[in-house]
Amino acid sequence: MIVWLRIVVCVSLLVLATLLLAPVQLVLLWRDGPARRTLPRLWHRIACRMIGLRVHVHGAPDTRRPLLLVANHVSWKDILALGSVADVVFIAKAEVKAWPVFGLLARLQATIFVAREQKRTTGNQVNEIGARLAAGEIVVLFPEGTTSDGNRLLEIKTSLFGAAAAAVPLAPEGTVHVQPVAIAYTRVHGMPMGRYHRPIAAWPGDIELVPHLMGVLREGAVDVDLVFGSTIAYRADSNRKKVSRDVETQLKTMLLARLRGR
């Protein structure tokens, strides 16, 4: 009974915060003011607090621009965690735009939607990402293209790094800064999270969202580590596959170290 009462209170407070902040964000988006990048961070912090997601940051986002953060992808909670520590904008598949609730929240954060199966529009989508990077926004890329089980890094799609290449000609110094970020879910109720509890953290595509969300709310105490790696300079003469391999190496190393408690 106490658990369900806590869930009702947390959900109610999060809904209230959303109703209060959403109209303000709509105005900020309409005016295209800089605050439209910072208000979502407040909402993400509130959301993390309400669902019991405790974020531990190791390192920091690079202060140079343009900045592309490249992270492994475990769950929708990745967005809350990253969004609570930096003014970021995410790249999401086009289907997310039509999702109930999540689609609205994504639009309010000015998410960049891409239709990966529509090859004829790929160039325009990459150019949009490049323009947003060049405008000073911190763009988050999940190069695996889907969520994993949280225990490993899936194959990285090098084609997605075309966004960095598109931003190079627009960058003031001809350099896009690519920074790997490892996302590791490490504890539940303060205890090390083993494979048994991994479904609480991970959200594979074949799991229904609502039951998974209820499971997270019932637990109410999950720790996630965000590890910011060394920035890689992407220039006009950079090799996309090499940059991809360098990012992959860092992500694997940082993720494994955190999962092993180092």
Residue share in helices?
40-55%
The proportion of residues in beta strands is 15-25%
Q: H/E order of the elements?
A: HHEEHEHEHEHEEHHEEH
The tally of helices reads 9
Average pLDDT for all residues: 85
Low-pLDDT residue spans: none
Distance between the termini: 37 Å
Structural class: alpha/beta
Query: In total, how many beta strands?
Result: 9
CA-based shape: globular
* Global Rg: 18 Å
Main sheet characteristics:
9 strands, mixed
Highlighted features:
single chain, 262 residues, alpha/beta, 9-stranded mixed beta sheet, 9 helices, 9 strands, 44% helix
Molecular structure report:
- The protein has 262 residues and is an alpha/beta fold.
- It has helices at residues 2-31, 35-51, 77-83, 102-108, 122-134, 162-167, 198-201, 209-219, 240-259, and strands at 53-58, 67-71, 88-93, 112-114, 138-141, 176-188, 191-192, 222-228, 232-234.
- Strands 1, 2, 3, 4, 5, 6, 7, 8 and 9 form a nine-stranded mixed β-sheet that branches.
- α1 runs antiparallel to α2 (35-51) and α2 packs across α3 (77-83).
- The relative contact order is 0.16.
- Keywords: Acyltransferase, Lipid metabolism, Membrane, Transferase, Transmembrane, Transmembrane helix.
- It comes from Rhizobium quercicola.
- Residues 67-186 form the Phospholipid/glycerol acyltransferase domain.
- It holds the Pfam family Acyltransferase.
- This is 1-acyl-sn-glycerol-3-phosphate acyltransferase.
